[in-house]
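Bench log, entry 3. Co-assembly request; chain sequences pasted below exactly as received.
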Amino acid sequence: MIFNRKTTEKTVHSMFFLITTVSLTVLSLIMLFLFTESIPLFETVSIKDFLFGEFWYPTDEPAEFGILSLIIGSLYVTIISSVIAIPLGLMTAIYLAEIASERMAEIVKPIVEMLASLPSIVIGFFGMVVISPLLQETFDVPIGLNLFNASLMLAFMIIPTICSLSEDAIHSVPVALKEASLALGATHLETIIKVVIPASISGICTAVILGMSRAIGETMVVLMIAGGAAMIPTSIFDPVRPMPASIAAEMAETPFGGEHYHALFATGLVLFIFTLMFNMVAAYISNKYRQVGEASL
Amino acid sequence: MKVKKYIALLIATSLLIPGMSLAERLVLKGSTTVLPIAQKVSEAYMKMNPDVKISLSGGGSSNGIKAIIDGTTDIGNASRFIKGKEVKLAVTKGVYPVPHRIALDCIVPVVHKSNGVSNLTVKQLRNIYLGKIRNWSEVGGANKRIVVISRDSSSGTYDAWKSLVMKKKRVVPSALTVPSNGGLVQAISNTKGAVGYIALGYVTKTIKTLKVEGIRGSEKTTKQGVYPISRPLYMFTKSWPKGKTLDFINYILSVKGQKLVKSVGSIPLY
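Structure output for the full assembly:
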């Protein structure tokens, strides 16, 4: 019997190990593929020209592969969508966790989560058909497909991520902390601002950064409504061409194995480095500011 | 397009399986502008001749012609005529490329319905796309900023626009780009100051087409050769075609084949 139990234990152990190894191998193979497909570009284009070149004319003779405007486009949509989504997502989370009655929370929470399940193409279509003409009329701008429209739609997409993750963090703040604060005479608002939020700050930061990393990697929405002009925007109503949009639009028609093909993979590599950085920052923050016990507050 | 590449690959690999090699094989390579026509016609042709397997791939006109010279394809698709340099290279290799005109391409500038402008010259269009003309009032329209809309750089329509209108100069970076013909129609119909270009077959009633040099882009003016933004599309063969290659070219040039040409937005020869 004892032998049997040990065998079972070992089998289960190695099975889980095997599964983990498989997923890790697949992941590293994808990364390896990304690297090997991007590196040939740098035989003809220097890394500096690639990252800081202003002009993206991949099919011209001679071609120019400068992705600076693409990187800036990506950063702008991410930053602006975060500026819109962070306050909204966070305040919704606080409302749901601390203020709303249980019945209200039961109604609102599924609605927020439903937002997350909207396919990105539907959001893109909405931005294209509804928001774009609306922006043109309201702000009297010549182009409805622009940085602002794309950021607004991306904000819609990342609010549920930010909201539900931070709500979990806020919810897990020990009741004793809140009770102590209230007992000391703090109002409900003071308790939320000075006790609940600081206590859950690591979870909130992780939520925000994961939301941002989703925004920078999102493809369909920016492909449909960012406008697709490879230029450095001077106003929030200028069109931009974020990196994922460029890859998605061009990959299908580019000759296999050509310079343009490798340039698109290299763009993917840059995008991957960005999201990797976001995720590492999120991991670092959640580690550093982790709330261990109530005494450390 | 990716799917098509896979289909081509699938067909190619299936031919490697012994026993199936009885089927005759036809390889088409080259221009992405010709690709949709080649695709449509190949499907119909293979249905009629189940013993023929056609493998299709893009890569651009230069690649198509190069493949004919290198002998790696039966038919090389091109959206332009063969260049002098290419003819010389072919002759030194002992190859005689034969052009077959299979269809015509006609690209029309389009604007929002409310736009008062109805005619532009090629030079005006070029200057708009170079970013030198920025307001409709400079070309006889209302005082409104021009929103330049272009297609993605890998599209065949962009390629035609670049060679016929831009004279190889670059489209201004601030131009919006849309990934499809449908997207372009949508963007134009939503944007009052917009100008774009589209293959004649994709024009819808929600947008307004412009005359170029006083000539309206249509099947008739394209066939007469008077409309400036039009060009013939070619399939090149290595010397005069024989066997299945000849049969395939004849099929494209037949009434049925030309109907298929029309169905993908290009202009039939007759």
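Residues 105-230 of chain B form a domain with the D-Maltodextrin-Binding Protein; domain 2 fold (CATH 3.40.190.10). Residues 15-21 of chain B have pLDDT under 50 and may be disordered.
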